[in-house]
Amino acid sequence: MNKEKTHLSIRMGKELHDKFQWVAQYEGRSMSGQILYLIQQCIRNFEKEHGPIPEEKEP
Q1: What are phi and psi of 17, to 5 degrees?
Q2: Within a domain: residue 58?
Q3: pLDDT (tens digit, 9 = 90+) per residue, 5-31?
Q4: How many domains is the chain partitioned into structurally?
């Protein structure tokens, strides 16, 4: 996997932000850490069902 860092920005309503912040703190993570955890979990689940995701950019 490429170790280069990239940036992702998302917009959300205040209520969703506040609730997500609460969940992240409960789990002992920053909001960024919680998002990374959830993304990694999503990828693991996808690859478990569909096999490894190739390095190429297009699905």
Answers
A1: -60, -50
A2: no
A3: 999 999 999 999 999 999 999 999 999
A4: 1
Domain of residue 42: give its range.
Answer: 14-50
pLDDT value at 1 more than 70: no
Amino acid at 22: W
Burial tier of 59 (Cβ tally within 10 Å: 0-12, 13-18, 19+): exposed
Helix crossing, 14-26 with 31-50: angle to 10°?
80
3 in a structural domain: no
Rounded-to-integer distance, Cα 24 and Cα 41, Å: 15
Q: Report the run of H or E that residue 54 belongs to, with start and end.
A: none
Q: Which amino acid is at 25?
A: Q
Residue 23 lies in a domain: yes
